Amino acid sequence: MSIWFEKLIKTFENEKIDYLANPNIPKQFYCKEFSDFNSYFFQTLKVSLDQSKKNKIFILHDGVFKKSALNSSENIIDKIIEILSENFIVTVKNLSFECQVNSLDIHASEEYLKKTSELIQNEESCNIFIALGSGTITDLLKHALFISNPNAIFISIPTAMTVTAFTSSFSVVDISGAKRTRPSKLIYATFWIESLLQAAPMQLSRAGYGDLLARFVAYGDWYLGYKLGISEKYDELAFRLMDAYAEPIKQIAKEFGKENLSQSASEISAATLAMAGIAMSLSGETTPLSGYEHVISHGLDFLRLISNRPLVLHGEQVALASLTSAMSFDWIFEIEKFDLKKMRSMSEKDTRQIINHFFNSAPFFGREEEKYLDSERKLFEAQSADTLNSAKEIFIKDYLIKSSKWDISKETFSIFINEWPVIKEYLKKLTIRSNEMQELLELACLPTFPEATTPNTTALEYRWALRFSPFIRSRFCIADFIFWLGEDTCTVGAI
């Protein structure tokens, strides 16, 4: 096993976590070769198999051709089928084919979740399900099993190191354009295959690195919310679990600016992503690695989902938004005295009014925004009315949850003010400064301004997402505090 995956075990032991018995910790296998995968896979599942017959396995993938190794032209699907067919009856489903859509159009939405559920319901005698591919495929199969077949054995095989979904017990599902995190199926095991991961497009690996950068800002959101009385609990278990990988992940930033990842960088990235997903599962929520940076990303996704435009790589958005989050923390660290006269409160009527304003001014069409006539936009809004109204109600409901807590918190805000110098110093320990974050992004060739994402994000879209960020979800982030203080998130984030 990789030394970096051995570090997972040592970290759990240091925290006195029984990693063998805890259902929130999937078995982790870092396979140097496909022969390792073959051996690990069968031995791991042996106790769960009916030895009197060949057991069935269901594999879901997205239909994109993926090389099994850097210097190979063999599709990973064919390679995995070849290996598993020795001991199992294998059923393979290509979700893009089943849905008759381009694979790039697939995302974790209710529509594709329904189709995935239909596919697994047709596999009554199958008890082993594999997500072979992206975070999207993993989330879809993970949540479909959670709903339809919770007792099944679920295994993830990442084809690129893109997100933390491969080891977490949560799924992110798009509901009317509003992304929502839901408890999901526990993962039995994750198999990281080095040659496969190194063959993945560097842009995908780079995006996975971007997703990990949330570790350096998201904890500040949780702690700040807790000290304000908005968040009911606060736990640093995930922070300690991730701390073992904090410096190594910084040190490999420059590796993502190269053509291919080194073996060491692959191992560190895979192990850190594995720990990130597990750390969230053990915390019982995604809060430790999903703060303001993910809120901004969800806001940008909303604009694209509503207008059926291709999504930007999640990790690219999170990386850029992590820089904005770091800038926002830098800004609040400069506060010596709070201007109580500028502080905001929002009634339900106020909330509806401002969200209506945001929807009416939303740059749904990105770079094409200026080409749309008023009549064309009105037609689009009329055709999308049901989806927009559904999303609007979700945002209103979620904002009012934390807004009501803020109204209560304001009554004792003087306590927070008295503790502010101490709170500020502790926040500095939980987060990194914007200049260090920017350096990491530059070394990893990740975007440091909106137009550098793939596809391009306009400055108008990004500013809209920042200003709308307090209304994206019910959980607190620093954008809420900035908004309640009567300030502009765009000015604070230097956008």
From TrEMBL:
PANTHER family: GLYCEROL DEHYDROGENASE, GLYCEROL DEHYDROGENASE 1. InterPro entries: G1PDH, Glycerol_DH. Keywords: Cytoplasm, Lipid biosynthesis, Lipid metabolism, Metal-binding, NAD, NADP, Oxidoreductase, Phospholipid biosynthesis, Phospholipid metabolism. It holds the Pfam family Fe-ADH_2. It comes from Fluviispira multicolorata. Coiled coil: none annotated. SUPFAM superfamilies: Dehydroquinate synthase-like (SSF56796). One of its GO terms (molecular function) is oxidoreductase activity, acting on CH-OH group of donors. The keyword Nuclease does not apply. This is Iron-containing alcohol dehydrogenase. GO terms for biological process: phospholipid biosynthetic process. Gene3D superfamilies: 3.40.50.1970, Dehydroquinate synthase-like - alpha domain (1.20.1090.10).
